[in-house]
Write a structure and sequence with these properties.
single chain, mainly alpha, 16 helices, 77% helix, globular, transmembrane
Length: 329
């Protein structure tokens, strides 16, 4: 009971610290919100004690403290008007976000955390940092976009750990989010909301099925329905049309076409195809390999959760949403 109350307390601190960082009208208040958020999430990681969580919580604390120190230095320099450029603040935010070339801590962190903490790290922990970054985004962030796209797509190939694969996919999607942030505020917020929906459904299913490595996916004895749902969510994360994951990428590509930014668009599409390759490789192998349970009556067994089916249906709604938006326009 005490542990549950402690967990609820730190979850509340994590929630309200993000709200504090978003609603603050000055940079110092936002910085304070990020620091409270850091302490709350580090404590949540440390609650389940083993060698990996203690190491990862210390690593997360050190990296995030370094990013916060650089951010505070940039805030002081900007307030004293020593230099008008916000590149130091951008560097601190990039470190906290885990975007390339400051991405190596993100890979090892995702590997050592459980799925619920991975989900929080990939979604909630990025909200305040991305919002602060959108205030000072400029053309100098293009190098981070290019590096995130290249590292996130190539790094995920031949990974045996699903958590590492998800980390590299997150870095690749971070390149898309930063690029959409340079176009408009509404675009990156829509991208991040849809991305959060997809990664939440996929990680919850990973947690339910207790998948951590690829061999567990390929040689699993799950029912055909679970395999179908898992493959659908994987293809949605890769951005395969007509899945939901194609929708934010389609909106970003459309905006970049209107802005005539064709070179960067080609790089983004190429990196997305590489990401789709290592997702499709899992899906095709899983769906074509025979299972030890071959009877189709097991398709609707007691392990088939209604929530998983609903999340799978949500990930298949991308084409319907695109058609609806086109008809409205």
């Amino acid at each position: 009971m005490i542990k549950n109350w402690t967990k609820m307390t730190f979850m509340t601190f994590m929630f309200f610290s993000t709200m504090m960082a978003l609603s603050s009208n000055n940079w110092l208040g936002s910085w304070m919100g990020l620091e409270i958020n850091l302490i709350a999430f580090t404590s949540l990681m440390y609650m389940k004690l083993n060698y990996y969580t203690s190491e990862s919580s210390m690593k997360y604390f050190i990296i995030q403290s370094m990013g916060s120190s650089i951010l505070l230095l940039g805030i002081i320099i900007l307030s004293l008007k020593i230099m008008e450029n916000t590149i130091i603040m951008m560097m601190g935010l990039m470190i906290k976000l885990g975007a390339a070339p400051f991405h190596m801590w993100m890979i090892s962190m995702m590997e050592s955390l459980n799925w619920m903490n991975c989900l929080i790290l990939s979604t909630w922990q990025k909200i305040a940092t991305l919002m602060l970054m959108s205030y000072i985004i400029n053309k100098t962030s293009m190098i981070n976009v290019v590096l995130s796209l290249i590292v996130g797509s190539i790094g995920g190939i031949n990974q045996l750990s699903i958590k590492k694969m998800m980390a590299y996919s997150s870095i690749n999607n971070m390149g898309w989010i930063i690029m959409s942030m340079m176009i408009s505020m509404k675009l990156w917020m829509n991208y991040f909301i849809i991305y959060s929906m997809m990664i939440t459904s996929l990680m919850i299913m990973m947690m339910k099925m207790k998948f951590n490595y690829l061999n567990q996916c390929l040689f699993t004895s799950s029912s055909p329905l679970n395999k179908l749902m898992f493959s659908t969510m994987m293809m949605s994360m890769g951005g395969l049309p007509p899945m939901l994951g194609f929708l934010p990428k389609f909106m970003t590509m459309q905006s970049m076409t209107l802005n005539e930014n064709f070179m960067m668009l080609m790089l983004m599409i190429s990196s997305s195809l590489i990401t789709l390759y290592f997702y499709m490789q899992i899906c095709v192998t899983m769906m074509t390999l025979n299972s030890s349970k071959l009877k189709w009556k097991l398709m609707f067994n007691k392990n088939s959760s209604i929530m998983m089916i609903m999340m799978c249906m949500v990930n298949m709604l991308g084409f319907t949403i695109i058609i609806t938006m086109k008809s409205i326009n």
